Every structure is written in structure tokens, then in C-alpha cells.
Amino acid sequence: MSNFDLDAFVTRHKADEAQKIIHSALKEFDNIAISFSGAEDVVLIDMAVKAKKDVSVFSLDTGRLHPETYKFIETVRKHYNIAIDIMSPDAQKLEAFTKEKGLFSFYEDGHKECCGVRKVAPLRKKLSTLDAWITGQRKDQSHGTRNQLDFAELDSAFSSEEQPLYKFNPLANWSSEDVWNYIKVFEVPFNELHQKGFISIGCEPCTRPVLPNQHEREGRWWWEESEHKECGLHIGNLIPTKQA
Predict the structure, then answer these.
(1) Is pLDDT of 48 > 80?
(2) I want to staple 170 with a disulfide (CB 3.0 to 4.6 A). Which of 21, 69, 84, 243 is the partner?
(3) Which residues pair with residue 68 across a beta bridge?
């Protein structure tokens, strides 16, 4: 990787040029990967493979995903003829956690600890091997927590002074309608749970369908307050709260 100039990259691109952002990011970095889980991420993959056939993709397997989601991952792998690096939780840490807390502690203690073991730790391990990553984050996905989302940024959550990590969010300004218009036009594969009322899809115990006119994140961790509805994968985008 050459010395990446973030400010120059932002100046050369516009927030609504998703495909150009992806293509440029792939040119800037050899050691870059797409994080894949939902509908937005397949849009990224579809755009990326049109520019680079050997694009690197990874997905987090928490061990608690819906059967439909596992089928979806395999469908995407075959559809684009790409390898998908499946990241799993550390077996010993997960065993210790479930032995102490059981399988459904998040309904009583909140989801952060479970997500930390099943999602954040495997993600951190993967990101430690990369110079940059591409996500499908959108500003409108969560109530307030993702309003400060740039299409290109230094990842404040997972970077270090010794090893900077850059993060690209090409769909930051897209709406859910934009995503689904792309899916329909280009016949992009999608999780069949979307046809059953699911919008934001995570682990099976923590995800449910939403009613008409409900925000998509209301189907995630519905027993918690809306400001807590982040799993920790994108904590660098959270709006800080005042400390008492």
C-alpha cells in the first residue's frame, strides 16, 4: 500500500458516487476486503466484481444466524464465484461465556456482551490483517447513531498508531429504496427473510419482522432502547453521549 491520502480521496469523490468510490478504494489498496452480511453488502459485491474479479469478502458467523442467512451466504458465493472468508467466534471464549451466562443472557443483560464475543472479537481479528475495509452502512439505518457517517474515513474504532485502518462506506447516503432499486434492476441475490417482513437481519434470537411504517432497526434488539441498537461493529460512528 502506498501512503494513502484520505483528504485527497474525499476531495476527488462525491458521496453519491458509490461505484466510483468502491472502484477507487480497490485501486488504492491491495489488502482490502468487503464485509458481507445483508442486502447492502451484496450491492457492494456486485459493484466490486465488475471492477475486480478476485475481490476479497468476509462474513461473520455468530453461530446464531437464521438458516435462511446461511443459505444466502452460499447463494452469493456461487452467484459471483467468489471465496467468502467465514469468521467464527473463538471456541474457548464462547464456551466460557455460554457456560457462565447461558444462551439467552442478552434478554436480561443487554446484547453488548454477547455481540462482543460472537461478532466484535472475530471482526477485530480479521481487521487486524487488513489495511482497509468496505461496509454497507447507511446513515438512515439507525436512529441517530449513524448520522455522522462519511463515505471514506480512518476507522477510529479499530485503527492504531502502528496500523491505521481505513473504512469506506460507499452507500452512506443511500436509502433503503435505493438499495432495493439496485437489487431489482441488476437482479442481485437477497436473503429470503426479506420476503417475510424482515428488514435488518442479524442473529435469529435478536431479529424479528417489522410492521408497516416501523423503522428497520425496530426489528433488532426490540427489548432495548433505540440508542443502544448497535452491536459494536461500527462503534466509531456512534454519537458520544454526555457523561454525568
Answers:
(1) yes
(2) 21
(3) none
